[in-house]
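<instruction>
Derive structure tokens from the sequence
<entry> Chain with its tokenised backbone below:
===
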Amino acid sequence: MSAFPPQRLAAPDPSGYDDRQREIHEAIASGPRGGVRGPLAVWLHRPDLAARAQDLGRYCRYETCLGERLSELAMLVTGRVFGSEYEWQVHKQHALEAGLSAEVIEAIRSDCRPHFTSSREAVVHDVARAALETRDVDDALYARAVDEIGEEALVDLIGLLGYYTLISLTINVFRIPPPGTAPVPDLTRADPSG
């Protein structure tokens, strides 16, 4: 297991929550996520951001017309492009359970273009890579995406990529470690007296 740098901003301590933080924490914890972890927990420093982001996140993760397999594919691509190990670890198993092949997942993890047997998976991957890396999609790829998944799914895909960009930036900037990893101690803050 690789070491991760010290987390820059931890989630607020629940014992110090104000009323709004408690309200939002409970709303997130009682939803399909079943808990408040990672970037959502850090966002509780700004509970209104957490509330709005979690509403968008619920839609992007559970309610788009893409379906679970294509959504998880787009999430993995976003996690890989941003080098977000937290996002990768959280969604790898979900992607397998949604029917994405282990070979496709491994290729994405290795930062290689997978060999796709599904043209819908291929176009979602290609749109995600193009949008995240160049912040655009050329006309040919756009037309291919409309043909393969349709305009409504393309709108959902771009929204999902935007949301998971927010997630990945939060993870990277605040150095949120992947689940199950102990944060690396910040030795620069150690008490020199010993």
